[in-house]
UniProtKB/TrEMBL annotation, chain A:
InterPro entries: DAMP1_SANT-like, Swc4/Dmap1. GO terms for molecular function: transcription corepressor activity. Residues 512-527 have a biased composition (Low complexity). Residues 1-27, 96-117, 330-408, 479-550 are annotated as: Disordered. Keywords: Chromatin regulator, Coiled coil, Nucleus, Transcription, Transcription regulation. This is SWR1-complex protein 4. GO terms for biological process: chromatin remodeling; DNA repair; negative regulation of transcription by RNA polymerase II. Residues 246-290 form a coiled coil. It comes from Hyphodiscus hymeniophilus. It is found in: Nucleus. GO terms for cellular component: NuA4 histone acetyltransferase complex; Swr1 complex. Belongs to the SWC4 family. It holds the Pfam family SANT_DAMP1_like. Residues 335-348 have a biased composition (Polar residues).
TrEMBL record, chain B:
It comes from the Eukaryota. This is Actin-related 4. Belongs to the actin family. It comes from Hyphodiscus hymeniophilus. Pfam families: Actin (PF00022). InterPro entries: Actin, Actin_CS, ATPase_NBD.
Length: 550, 461
C-alpha cells in the first residue's frame, strides 16, 4: 500500500496528481540499480532511492565509435543465364572499404566510384537449370515416332509445352490447347477433331517419344544403369492404372460426411485393436519370459562318476534332513523368495517339477546362489491375471521328488484295495472318470474336495452299517429274550410276530438312515416308494427335487 | 558492446537469395493502385484508382489529396472496367505514372548522390555518372506489373508497350496477381481466393503458374457488397439516407433511430453524381469495415436466423449524425456471397447466380485441375484482397469447405494484418522482384525491341 492509497482512503486531496509520474520514477531506478543489495533497496519501500543511476551511455558510445560510413556502390552486373546482355545494377559494399558498423542503410556517400571496366556476373546464374527434352528430326519422326492419333504437328506442340513447363504435367495438361492446322493445308488431316486429351494421353505420348529417342541414342544393351532405369519407367507407365488411381482418389476426395466419419471411426477402432493386440503380445512375452527358465549353467559332469553320485546322495540326504527340521520349525520363517525365485537362477529344470528340485544344486550351487541373486525384475501378476494365465505359486513343500499325477491319485492309491474299489464305484456312479482328463489347478482342487467328500460318505456308510448290525443283534437278543420269557410263561410262538419284528427292524433301519439323510427321511416316511441311493450326491439331488416339488 | 561486423555487410544472397536491383512493383486494382520498391514490406505509394477530370478543361487529377475536393464539375472516373482490367489506357497510364513518380522515382530514393539528403557531408567529389535526368520516369528501374488471370493478350501487349515505350523501363515483367498473392503467403502451389473491389476470383496455382482451367471469377466482391448495402438502406423502415461527409456542415447527436439533425452544406454548383458516388462509397466502406459480418455457419443464415437475431447488434453513425442498431441485417448483406438465394435484390441488376457464390467457385475451380493436386491445393488456401476483411469471412470459408470436402484436410492461410491482406499480391511481387534468381526472367528492353510486344505472350505464361 502506498502513501497515495492511504491519502485516498482518508480523503485527503493533496498529492493525487503527480502519482503516475512518481510511479514511473520508481520503475526506472529499480531496473537499473544493479549493485545494490535487495535488502537495502527494500528498506526504501515505495520511495525511490535517491541514488542517481548512471546515465546510459548509449549515445555517447555511438558517437565515440563513429567511423567513416561504409561505402556502397551501385554495381552493374550481368546474368549469363540470360540470352541477351541485360545489365542490371545492385548496391554492393565497396570492396576496399574497411568494415564499419554504421551506415548500413546504404545511404553513405560514395567517393570516386572507380568506373569498373569489367561487369561482374550474377551469382544466381547457376540456378538456371533446364530440363532436357528429347529432340528429333523429321526423319527420325517418320521412322520411329509415328503414333496412332497423333500428327507430327501436335507432337511438336506437345514437346514445346513440355519444354516450356519443364515437365510439370498439371500445367502442361492445363495449357494444352492444340488447334490442328487448317485441313487441306496438310495431307494427313485424319484426326481433325480436337478431342480433349487427358493427362494420361499426353504422358503416354511423351514417354513413348522419350523412350524411343533414348533407345535411338543408346541401344538397349549399351544402356547404363540410370538410362536403363529411365527406360523402365517409360516402359512401365500404365495409363489405365493411372486413370483408375485418379478415379479412386477422386471418390476419396468426394466422400460424404458420413463416409468420412465412418472411415474415421473405423480407423480409430483399428488403432484401438492394434494397440490392444500389442499390449496383449507384450504381456504374453512377459509371461513367457517369466515362465521360461534361464538355460542351464550347472555342470552335471561331476555326477557322472560313482563318487559324484555318492556326493549327490549325501547332499540330498542332508537337504532332506534340514528340510524336515525346517518344516518343524514352521513355515513362517521360510521366506517365500527362497522358493521359486531362488531356483530360477539355478535353472536347467523343467518348470513343472521345479518345486521338487528346488534345492538340488551343483556343488558350486549354494555358494553361487548369493552372487547370482537379484533375478531380473518381474512384474507382479495380479490375482485376475494369475487366474487368467493359470499361474500359481505353490507354497507347500513336499518331501522328495514325485510326479504331480501321483498327487492327484494319492487319495485313491494310498487306500486299501477294497476302499479303492468302493471309491471307483462311487465315481462311476457319479459319472466322473477316475483319471482326470484336464487336471488344471482348479479341477485338481475340485477333485480333491470330491474325493474328500466321497471318503466322508464311505465312512458314514460304514458307521451306519455297523449300527444296523448292532441294532439287528440287539433285536434278535431282545426277541430271544422275549421268546424265552414267553416260553417260560408257556405262550406259543407267534409266526407273524416274528414277521412284525422284522418289519419293525426295517423301519428302524430307515429311521436310522433318515438321521443321516436329514430331510430325506421325511419323504421316506411320507410313504414315498422311491428307492433311495446311498450316495450323498443323489441325496442332495433328491433334496433339490423335493424342494421343487414342494 | 564491441562493434561487431554487421550482418548487413555480408552478401544478403547467402541468407535468402535476395539481390535487389531497385525494381518497382506496380499492382493496379479497381479500387487502388499499389506501387513500391521490391524488397519492401508495404507499397510506398497507395493511390486511389478513381481520378478526377474537370469537365471544362479536361485535365486529370489523381490521388486522395485532390479527388475528394467537392469541386463543381469534377467528374470522377475509373480507368478499370467492371472486370478489374484496364479499360482506359490513357488514363491508366497517367494514373500509374502518378503513383510511381509521386512517391517513388521523383523522390530519387534510389540515388543518394542527388537527393540532397547528404548535402552536409564533406565529401564533395561526387561521381555524377549515369544520373542525367531522363525524361522518362522509369529508366533506372525494372518494372514488375501485376494483372488479373483473365487479362486478354491485347491488354498484356499494351502493358509492355507502355512500360517500354512511355516509361523507358530497362526490363519488364507481367505477373498474375493471384500467383503473387500465393507467393506473398509463402506458397508456390495454392488455391487463391481473392475478393477485391470489382471481382472475386478463385484460382489454382501450381508451382508459381496459374492453371487456366481453374480460373473462376464473379462480380460478387466489394462493389457488389456496397450495392447490397445501398439496397439494404433503401429498404429499411424508415429508409436510411446515405449522405456523404462532404454534404454535412455540422451535426448534433441524436438518439438511435431518430432522424438526423444536421445542417447541410450549400453548393453553388453541386458536385457531380460520380463524385457523390465516390464519397458515398467511402461511407459504405466504413460501414463494411465496422458493421458487416459474415454468418459463420455453412448451413447459411437462413437456417440460423433465429440464432442470428440473438446476436448483439452494432451501432453505426451516419455522417449526418443519425444512428441505428444493426442486428441481423448486418449478416444479411454478405450472405449472398455464399448463398445466392439470400442476396438482396438490387434494382437494375440481375440477381447473382448459384455459380457465382464462393463455395461454388471453389468447387468449379477444383474441378478444373488434376485430381492429384486438388488435395494439396485444399491444404494451401490463400485468402487475399480487401473484400475478405469483412469479419467472419475466413471462418465461413473454412466451414463451407470442410462441409463440402469432409474427407480432405482444409487449411486456410489468411494474413492477420489488414495491410498484408489488402496488399497480398503487391507483397508477393515485392518478394519475387527482389530475388536473385528472378534476374534471368526479366524481359529486357533489347528483347522487346527484337521481338516486339508479342514477347509478353511467349514469356509471361
Ligand atoms: N475492412 C474491410 N472490410 C470489408 N471490406 C473492405 C475492408 N477494407 C476494404 N474493403 C473493401 O475491399 C475492396 C478493395 O479491395 P482490394 O484493394 O483488394 O481491391 P482491388 O485489388 O483494388 O480491386 P480488384 O482486385 O477488383 O481490382 C473495396 O471494395 C473495399 O470496400
Ligand atoms: Mg485485387
Amino acid at each position: 500500500m502506498s502513501s497515495h492509497d492511504v491519502r485516498d482512503m482518508l480523503d485527503l486531496p493533496g498529492t493525487a496528481g503527480p502519482r503516475p509520474a512518481k510511479k514511473q520514477k520508481i520503475a526506472a531506478p529499480k531496473s537499473t540499480l544493479k549493485g545494490l543489495a535487495r535488502e537495502v533497496q527494500s528498506l526504501a519501500g515505495d520511495n525511490p532511492i535517491s541514488i542517481v543511476p548512471e546515465i546510459s551511455s548509449f549515445k555517447k558510445r555511438r558517437l565515440a565509435s563513429r567511423k567513416p560510413a561504409a561505402r556502397w556502390v551501385l554495381k552493374p552486373f550481368k546474368n549469363p543465364a540470360r540470352g541477351d546482355d541485360l545489365v542490371l545494377a545492385h548496391w554492393r559494399r565497396k570492396a576496399e572499404a574497411p568494415p564499419a558498423p554504421v551506415g548500413e542503410d546504404g545511404n553513405s556517400e560514395q567517393v570516386e566510384a572507380q568506373p569498373e571496366p569489367e561487369i561482374e556476373n550474377s551469382t544466381f546464374a547457376k540456378f538456371n537449370v533446364k530440363v532436357d527434352i528429347p529432340e528429333y528430326t523429321d526423319l527420325q519422326y517418320s521412322l520411329k515416332l509415328e503414333g496412332e492419333g497423333w500428327t507430327k504437328d501436335e507432337t511438336d506442340y506437345l514437346m514445346g509445352l513440355v519444354k516450356d513447363f519443364d515437365l510439370r504435367w498439371p500445367l502442361i495438361w492445363d495449357r494444352y490447347d492444340y488447334e490442328p492446322l487448317a485441313s487441306g493445308e496438310n495431307g494427313d488431316s485424319l484426326v481433325s477433331v480436337t478431342q480433349p486429351r487427358s493427362m494420361e494421353d499426353l504422358k503416354v505420348r511423351y514417354y513413348f517419344i522419350a523412350d524411343q529417342m533414348l533407345q535411338l541414342h543408346t541401344p538397349l544393351k549399351d544402356m547404363r544403369k540410370t538410362e536403363h532405369d529411365l527406360h523402365e519407367i517409360f516402359e512401365k507407365f500404365d495409363p489405365n492404372q493411372e486413370a483408375l488411381r485418379k478415379k479412386f482418389a477422386e471418390t476419396a476426395l468426394n466422400r460424404t460426411k458420413e463416409e468420412a466419419r465412418e472411415e474415421e471411426s473405423l480407423l480409430l477402432e483399428l488403432k484401438r485393436i492394434l494397440a490392444r493386440s500389442e499390449k496383449l503380445s507384450e504381456e504374453r512375452k512377459e509371461l513367457y519370459a517369466r515362465l521360461e527358465a534361464p538355460p542351464s549353467n550347472g555342470n552335471i559332469g561331476i555326477y557322472t562318476s560313482s563318487q559324484g553320485l555318492q556326493q549327490l546322495l549325501q547332499q540330498l540326504m542332508t537337504l532332506n534332513n534340514s528340510k524336515k527340521r525346517r518344516s518343524l520349525m514352521g513355515a513362517e520363517n521360510m521366506s517365500p523368495a527362497s522358493g521359486p525365485s531362488g531356483l530360477q537362477q539355478q535353472g536347467s529344470f523343467d518348470r513343472r517339477d521345479s518345486t521338487m528340485r528346488e534345492s538340488i544344486s551343483g556343488p558350486s550351487g549354494p555358494s553361487r546362489k548369493g552372487t547370482l541373486q537379484g533375478p531380473p525384475e518381474r512384474r507382479e501378476l495380479t490375482k485376475e491375471e494369475e487366474k487368467m494365465y493359470g499361474v500359481s505359486q505353490p507354497t507347500e513343500k513336499l518331501s522328495g521328488p514325485s510326479f504331480r499325477a501321483d498327487r492327484l491319485n494319492k487319495p485313491i492309491t494310498n487306500k486299501s484295495a477294497t476302499m479303492q474299489a468302493k471309491i471307483t464305484n462311487v465315481l462311476g456312479e457319479l459319472g466322473v472318470p477316475s483319471r482326470l482328463i484336464m487336471p488344471t489347478a482348479a479341477v485338481g482342487q475340485e477333485w480333491e474336495s470330491l474325493l474328500g467328500n466321497i471318503q466322508k460318505l464311505l465312512e458314514l456308510k460304514k458307521n451306519a452299517e455297523k449300527l444296523d448290525g448292532e441294532i439287528a443283534i440287539a433285536m434278535t437278543l431282545k426277541a430271544e429274550r422275549e421268546k424265552r420269557e414267553r416260553a417260560a410263561r408257556g405262550e406259543p410262538d407267534p409266526e407273524d410276530d416274528d414277521h412284525d419284528v422284522k418289519r419293525e427292524s426295517d423301519r428302524e433301519k430307515s429311521v436310522s438312515r433318515s438321521v443321516r439323510g436329514g430331510s430325506v427321511s421325511r419323504s421316506a416316511r411320507g410313504g414315498s416308494t422311491r428307492k433311495r441311493s446311498a450316495s450323498v450326491l443323489s441325496a442332495m439331488s433328491d433334496k433339490s427335487t423335493k424342494r421343487q416339488k414342494k | 558492446m564491441a562493434a561487431q561486423p554487421m550482418t548487413s555487410s555480408m552478401q544478403p544472397t547467402d541468407v535468402y537469395g535476395g539481390d535487389e536491383v531497385s525494381a518497382i512493383i506496380l499492382d493496379p486494382g479497381y479500387s487502388s493502385v499499389r506501387a513500391g520498391f521490391a524488397g519492401e514490406d508495404t507499397p510506398k505509394s497507395f493511390v486511389n484508382s478513381h481520378y478526377g477530370v474537370s469537365s471544362s478543361g479536361g485535365s486529370y487529377v489523381f490521388g486522395d489529396d485532390t479527388i475528394h475536393n467537392p469541386l463543381a464539375n469534377l467528374d470522377i472516373r475509373n480507368p478499370m472496367s467492371k472486370e478489374g482490367v484496364v479499360e482506359d489506357w490513357d488514363a491508366a497510364t497517367k494514373l500509374w505514372e502518378y503513383a510511381i513518380t509521386s512517391r517513388l522515382t521523383s523522390f530519387k530514393q534510389a540515388d543518394p548522390r542527388t537527393n540532397g539528403l547528404n548535402d552536409d557531408m564533406k565529401d564533395a567529389d561526387i561521381e555524377m555518372e549515369g544520373v542525367e535526368e531522363g525524361e522518362k520516369p522509369l529508366e533506372e528501374h525494372p518494372l514488375l506489373m501485376t494483372e488479373t488471370a483473365w487479362n486478354n493478350p491485347k491488354l498484356r501487349e499494351k502493358s509492355i508497350e507502355v512500360a517500354m515505350e512511355s516509361w523507358g523501363c530497362p526490363a519488364f515483367w507481367l505477373a498474375r496477381n493471384s500467383v503473387l498473392a500465393s507467393f506473398g503467403a509463402g506458397k508456390a502451389t495454392a488455391l487463391v481466393v481473392d475478393v477485391g473491389a470489382s471481382t472475386t476470383s478463385v484460382i489454382c496455382i501450381h508451382d508459381g503458374l496459374i492453371l487456366k482451367k481453374s480460373v473462376q471469377k464473379s462480380p460478387l466482391a466489394g462493389n457488389w457488397l456496397s450495392s447490397q448495402l445501398r439496397s439494404l438502406f433503401s429498404t429499411t423502415d424508415p429508409k436510411v439516407e446515405l449522405v456523404p461527409h462532404f454534404m454535412i456542415a455540422s451535426k448534433t447527436p441524436v438518439d438511435a433511430g431518430a432522424s438526423a439533425q444536421a445542417t447541410y452544406r450549400k453548393f453553388e454548383d453541386t458536385p457531380s453524381a460520380s463524385f457523390r458516388a465516390l464519397e458515398e462509397e467511402r461511407v459504405l466502406t466504413e460501414f463494411k469495415e465496422s458493421v458487416v459480418q459474415v454468418w459463420q455457419d455453412h448451413r447459411g443464415l437462413k437456417a440460423g436466423t433465429e440464432y442470428a437475431r440473438q446476436q448483439p447488434g452494432r451501432v453505426f453513425e451516419m455522417p449526418d449524425g443519425s444512428n441505428q442498431l444493426w442486428g441481423v441485417e448486418r449478416y444479411n448483406v454478405a450472405e449472398g456471397m455464399w448463398d445466392s438465394s439470400s442476396a438482396l435484390p438490387v434494382p437494375n441488376e440481375s440477381a447473382p447466380s448459384k455459380g457465382q457464390t464462393i463455395p461454388e467457385m471453389v468447387k468449379a475451380s477444383l474441378a478444373g485441375v488434376d485430381i492429384d493436386i486438388r488435395a494439396h491445393v485444399l491444404q494451401n488456401i490463400v485468402v487475399t484482397g480487401g473484400g475478405t476483411l469483412v469479419s467472419g469471412f475466413t471462418d465461413r470459408l473454412h466451414n463451407e469447405l470442410t462441409a463440402m470436402y469432409p474427407g480432405a484436410r482444409i487449411k486456410i492461410q489468411a494474413a492477420g494484418l489488414t495491410a498484408e491482406r489488402r496488399f497480398g499480391s503487391w507483397i508477393g511481387g515485392s518478394i519475387l522482384g527482389s530475388l536473385g534468381t528472378f534476374h534471368q526472367m526479366w524481359i529486357s528492353k533489347k528483347e522487346y525491341e527484337e521481338f516486339g510486344t508479342s514477347i509478353i505472350e511467349k514469356r509471361c505464361k
